[in-house]
Amino acid sequence: xxxxxxxxxxxxxxxxxxxxxxxxxxxxxxxxxxxxxxxxxxxxxxxxxxxxx
Length: 53
Hints:
53 residues; single chain
């Protein structure tokens, strides 16, 4: 029981981190010159998330 509840707590923390991410994207979008770098960084982050799952 304790182990599963701990896993749920960690999963909830991951969701909180993901919820914060769009704010960072908004800041990046203001600097149009770095769109390609932003897209590459976003893809890299998505791949990292899949590996963590």
